[in-house]
Amino acid sequence: MALGRGRVMRRVRILQVGDIHYPDWHPSSSNIDAKDSKFAPKITQKLRASSLRAVLTKLRRLTTSKPLDSIAFMGDFTSRGDKTFIASAFQHFTLLCRAQGRSSKALPLIFVPGNHDVNRDDARELGPTEKFSEMASLAARFGWQTVPVDQPVHFRLPTGSAGANFILVNTAIGSWELQNLPAFLRDRLEALSPSTEPVDLGSPDTWGHSPATPPSDPDKEASDDEYYGQMDTPYISREMLAGLQELLQQPDMRFGIMIGHHNLLPQKTPRITPYAEMLNSGFVRTQLLQGNKPIVYLHGHIHADPVEIVNDPRFPDGKLICISAPEIQSGFNELVFFTTDQGELVGIRLIPYRTNVADGTVMEGEHCFISTMSNGKAFLNVKRLPKLTPDRRPILTPLM
């Protein structure tokens, strides 16, 4: 794909924010060499800084100082299914991300469900889709984009333009669905209280005898954490995948930006929980690559920030680019998508903002440019972008 001199390149800029875990916010303080333990505590506290507070401040500043097209949250607004914090998180980030004086729907805000957003009792009583109804209602109430439940949600950014296609998917539909588990685990869980010990995932004969069995009086929060790690069973449902493929096969869909909570590739850190990896991730990856077009998948869940690219030489124009955002206490990503007038994705600029807990700051990291050209060579040098047109579109010429 070659561009002639003077051709216009569009760009779409978003912020990608990872898992929130609102109930667990404990602003960690920066280091102080306190030799005098009796020194005035109020002054000592004023000398400390919080990296979490720095992240929230940075988010706020970017929403008011940079032209953004959206802010996307990767799920897990709450922890351990505690519904009381989901509304608080929606309200907090609505106020934080939308500048004063703007209409309630000025800046598109995106949320996809995470496994920790699923309440255990709701899952058992309401079923696999209705358990998301409350968070979907909250998103509508605060003027956010529609939350995906059993079908993908598709829209374009910037709003009302022929810009980038965004597709939201629900990967948490299997969270706390006991029928997904082996019979011996399902029977055990039906009679189990969340306040008791986590489940031994060994053989049925080892209940109570496993060396991994925790103490008889475990901490409830730690117990619930293990529950929500063990009983996740993420997958993309057949209906969701069919809707996704139908969208991606549309003639004007030259590329797609998918957003879901769970990772499509196994995480770097070994994960000891047999039912927590996405059950059909390999099949989903294959289906996406066979579309022979660039697909960007944004996710959270693993509290880390890998950037991974999957391709198949049999589909030379196909690329699956997986970008993970860290937990919010570690920072967030700024992503700039460069597209042509023909609706093709040229590349992505990733700008990481990461925290330094020791001094309570958040810093802009080294930029990364990811080419989506089929030959693997980027003709665009981001550092050489010229001045922008009035509607924020840089005028590019081919680099020789």
From TrEMBL:
InterPro entries: Calcineurin-like_PHP (IPR004843), CNP_phosphodiesterase-III (IPR050884), Metallo-depent_PP-like (IPR029052). The keyword Iron applies. Residues 194-227 are annotated as: Disordered. The keyword Iron applies. Pfam families: Metallophos. Residues 13-304 form the Calcineurin-like phosphoesterase domain. Keywords: Hydrolase, Iron, Metal-binding. SUPFAM superfamilies: Metallo-dependent phosphatases (SSF56300). GO terms for molecular function: hydrolase activity; metal ion binding. PANTHER family: CYCLIC NUCLEOTIDE PHOSPHODIESTERASE CBUA0032-RELATED (PTHR42988:SF2), PHOSPHOHYDROLASE (PTHR42988). Belongs to the cyclic nucleotide phosphodiesterase class-III family. This is Calcineurin-like phosphoesterase domain-containing protein. It comes from Mesorhizobium japonicum.
